Structures
1.
Amino acid sequence: MEGIDKALAPFFELIFLAYPDPLFVVSVEGGDYHYRAVNDAYLRHAGLSLEEVLSRRVVDVLPPAARPYLLGKFAEALKAKRSIVYEVSAPEGRTFEAVISPIVTPEGDCPYLLGSLMDITPRKRAEAELEFARFHDGVTGLPNRFSLRQRLAEALIHAESLDQSVMLLVLDLDRFKPLNETLGHPMADRLLCQVAVRLQAALPLGGTVARLDGDEFGVLAFGDAQDAEALAQRLQEVFSLPFMVDGHEVYLTASIGVGRFPADAQNPDALMRCAGVALDRAKQERNAYCLYHLGLSEDTTDRLVLGHKLRHALERHELTVHYQPQVCLESGRIFGAEALIRWHHPQLGMISPAKFIPLAEECGLIVPITEWVMRAACLQQRCWAQEGLGDVRMSVNLSGRHFKRQNLAELVKRVLAETSIPPTCLDLELTESILMDNVEASAEVMQELSRIGILFSVDDFGTGYSSLSYLQRFPLHTLKVDQSFVRGITSGEDGAPITSAIIAMAHSLGMKVIAEGVETRAQLDFLRERRCDGYQGYYFSRPVPAEEFGALLRAAHKV
Ligand code: C2E
Ligand code: MG
Ligand code: MG
C-alpha cells in the first residue's frame, strides 16, 4: 500500500477507534449488512453499546422510517463502486453529512462498506438563516421584495391557468421619514413590526404581505377590481387606531397604489411598475388609494411636457404675481398681502399654482421661481410704501425644497438687499409638513432669519401633523387657519370648535392668527367674536393683480 508508513500498521485500529467523527464498517452479505467495526464516536452517536451494535444487523439498528433511504444509499455505493455522500437527520434538529464508501478488493469485489458521519448542524443552520435573510426582511420578518417578486411570478402563472385575476397593492406610510427621525430607528422599527402584524391580519386567504423598502409594503392577492378596492380600504382601516410604541401613541396613514393582472400588466415587473405609478398618484393626496389606469402614465408624460414649458415661462414673462389682501379683524384695515403666483400660458391658458408648484418642485425650478416671486413682491411693497400707502406686509409661500441643501437665508438676504424693504415687512409662509419634514434644518435657518426681523407663518394650519411641542421649536409669528375649517364654521361640521381651539392655542403661544378662505359674513362674525387677528378670503377680495390691489389701498387711505 503506497503512501502508508508500514510502521503505522499496528496503530490503524487505534486511529479508527479514536477518530473524532462517527465511523463504521459493515460487511455486505447478499442484500444484508452486518456491523463489523464501529468507533467510540459512532456508539455515542447511536446511543448504543458495542455489544448491541455488533450483535445486530444494520437494518435492525436503523430507525424504521430511515431504513429505505439509508439502505438505498448503501446499495447505490455498491453498484457505482464509489463513495456516495448524503445527509442524515438526527434528533434535536441535528444534521449529519454521511459518506459511504465501498472497500474494493484487487479482484473487484466489495465485501465491506466504510461509513463516516460528520455533524454539519451549524453549517445547515447558517445556510437556513442566509436563505431566510435572502427572502425576508430583517426588521419585520415579512417576505422581502425579492420574495414578493417570486411569489408574484408564481401567482401569475397560477392565475393564468385558472383564468383568475391578481392584484398587487403597494402601500407607503405617509410621512414616515420625519417620524423615523423623531422616534429614533429602534422605535421606528418596532412601529414597522406592528404595522406588519396588522397588515397580515387584514390579508385575504392566500394573500402575501411583504416589506419592500423602508416604509413601503407590498400586498399580493387574488381578485378583481372590486376586490382590490375593498382590500385597499381594509388596509387603510388598519391605520384607524393609533399604534403604541414604548408608551407613545402614534397615528399613521398610508397611501396605496394598485396594479392588476391581467387588466393592467401581464408580467411581474410591469405589474410592480403599474402599482408604483398608481402609488405616486395616491401619495399626492396622502391617505388615499389609487387603482392604476392608462391615464396615469399619460399624466406622467403630460407633466414632462409641462415641466419643459415651465422652464421657459420665467424667461418669457408668462408668470405674474397676484396679491390677496390680509385684513385686520378689529380695524378692518389691510395690513398685508399674500403673494400668489399665476401662470398665463399662451396656449394652455391659466394654469393653477396647485398644479405647477409641485411640478416646479420636481424639476428643480422652485428655487428660482420663489426668488422671482419674492423679488417681485418686495419691489411691489417698496412701490406702495414710496407712494405713501403704508408698509404692507408681504407674505410669500415657501416650498420644502428650500430646506434641502438650498441656502434660503442667503436668498432672502439677497432679495432684501436688492429691494431694501424692512425685513419685518417680509413674512414667509411654510406648511406644517415642511416644518415636520426638516425639523433641524428649518429651525436653524428660521432662527437666523428671525434674528434679522423676518416673520414666519404656518400656512394651512390644522391639516398637517404638527404638535404643539414642535411648533415651539420654531420662531413662528402667525398661524393661518386652513380654509377647510373656516368653511366648516357655518356648515355644522367641526370647523367652529377647531377654529376656536386653534385661535386660543396660538394666542397662548404668543402667536397671531389669520383665517384663510373667509367667504361669508357669518364666518367673519364668528372669527371676530373669537378674537381672531386677521383674515383673508373672497369675502373681502380675491387675489388680484398689483394695480387692483393698489387701488384697494388708495381707497382705504382716502377714508
Ligand atoms: P395658499 O398659500 O394656502 O393660498 C391660498 C389659496 O386659497 C390661494 O389659491 C387663494 O387664491 C385661495 N383663496 C383665497 N381666498 C379664498 C376664498 O375665500 N375661498 C377659496 N375657495 N379660496 C381662496 P391659489 O392662488 O390657487 O394657490 C394655491 C396654493 O399654491 C397656495 O395655497 C400655495 O400653497 C401655492 N402657491 C401659490 N403661489 C405660490 C408661490 O409663489 N410659491 C409657492 N411655493 N407656492 C405657491
Ligand atoms: Mg399661503
Ligand atoms: Mg393656505
Note: The chain is about 45% helix and 25% strand.
2.
Amino acid sequence: MQKLVINGGKKLGGEIVLQGAKNAALPIIAASVLCGEEIILHNCPRISDTYSAMRILTYLGCRAGFEDKNTAVIKAENVSADGISDELMREMRSSIFFLGAVLGRTGRCRITLPGGCDLGPRPIDMHLSALRKMGVTIREEFGALNCTAENGLHGAKIPLSFPSVGTTENIMLAAVLAEGTTVIHNAAREPEIIDLASFLTACGAKINGAGSGKITINGVKSLYGCEYTVMPDRIACATYLACAAAAGGELVVSDCRPSDMESILTVFEQMGCILHTTGEKIYFSAGRPLKAVTPIRTMVYPGFPTDAQAVIMAALCKAKGTSVFAENIFENRYKHVDGLRRMGADILVEGKVAVIEGVNRLYGAKTDAPDLRGGAGLVAAALSAEGTCEISNIHYIDRGYEEIEKVLSSVGADIVRI
Ligand code: UD1
C-alpha cells in the first residue's frame, strides 16, 4: 500500500505545466469507440482513470495505449457488442460513457452499474431514461443492464430535470450516429462538454450549442479519425493553486485556461492572493495571512465546482475568520473533513453546510484519502502543516492527478511517495 509523506511548512515556488483534463479525456476516450479510424489524442493525462478507460477499450476489442508521454493512440476498428465486465465497470464512474458510445456504434451493450468515488447516491436514471427516448430497450437481468436498440437509435427531444454532466455527454455520444436530430434541453454547460463536442466535430459529427443549455445533434452516417488535444484540467489547476495558497509562495501555472475558472479564481482573490492571468498562464502569489471568504455554494458551471470544494476548504483552514460552504451537488462530499480535523482544523459540518473557523496552525497527522478530490485537499492542508503528515489510500488521488508528488516537489514541496 503506497502513501504520501509530506513535511509541511515549505513555501512553493516555480512553474507547473498543467496536465490535460481528466473529465474531458474520459468521455473523449469513450467517444473513440464511435470512429473506426485511428484517433490520436494529445495532452491525455496518464492517470489511473484513463488507464481504466483504455482497459475497457481493449476489452471491447479496440487498440488503445499511450505512444508518447501524453499522446494516446486509439483504433476502434472492431467493437464487441457483448458488453463490459463488471470488474471494469466498477473501476470508475466514467465507465458509464461506454454505454452511449457502444450503443451508438453497435446498437447493443450490456453493462453493470458503474463504480467511482463514494460521494453519496450517484444514480444513472437520467442516462437510462434519455437512452430509452432514443429507442433503447433496457432489461435488467441478474444485476446487469441489457440494452438494445432493435431498430437503431433515433434522435429525440430530451429535457433534463437537472443539467447532469455525465447524462449530457452520454446523450451526445449516443446521438452522433443516431438517425435524425437530438435536442438536449437544460444541458450541462461545463467546459468539458464543449471539449467533447469539439472532439466529435473534429471526427465529422454535427453538434451545435455545446456550452449552452440547448445542444442539437444531427446524426451522421459515420465518423472518421482525427488528431485532437485534450483541454487543460481546471480542477488540477485549482488544486495546485490551493496548495500554493496553503503553503505560501509564488507559482506560475502554464498550459491552463483561466477563462474556465472564474468562480474559483475569485475565491483565491477574496482570500487575499494576488493573481495575474494571461490566455494560458496564471501567475499566483499567496496572500499572507489568508482571509476567510464569503459563503461558497457549489453549483453547476459557471458556478463554483463541487470538485474544487475540498481543496479550497483545505486552503481556508488557516485563513483568518469564518468561511462557510454549502455543497449542493453531491450528498456525501465532506469526507475529507475528518482528515483535516486530525491536522487541527476547526470545521463543523451540518448537513450540506460546513463552517470553517480559521486556526493558527495545522500539525502533522496520519490520514486516509477518502476520495479523489478529498485526498487532494488533504495534500494541500499537509503542505501547510507543522511536522509530518502521512496520507494513505492514495490510489484515489492517482485517479485524477498525474504524479502529484513529482509536480509538487518540482516547486519546492517536501513530499514523497513510499
Ligand atoms: C461529473 C464529473 C465530476 C463532477 C460532477 C459534477 C466527470 C467524469 N465527472 O460527474 O467530477 O463532480 O460532474 O460537476 O465528468 N444524477 C442523478 N441521476 C443521473 C445522473 C446524475 O440523480 O442519472 C445526480 C447525481 O447524483 C448528482 C448530480 O446529478 O447529484 C450531478 O451529477 P452529474 O452532473 O451527472 O455528475 P457526473 O457526470 O457523475
Note: The first helix runs from residue 22 to 31.
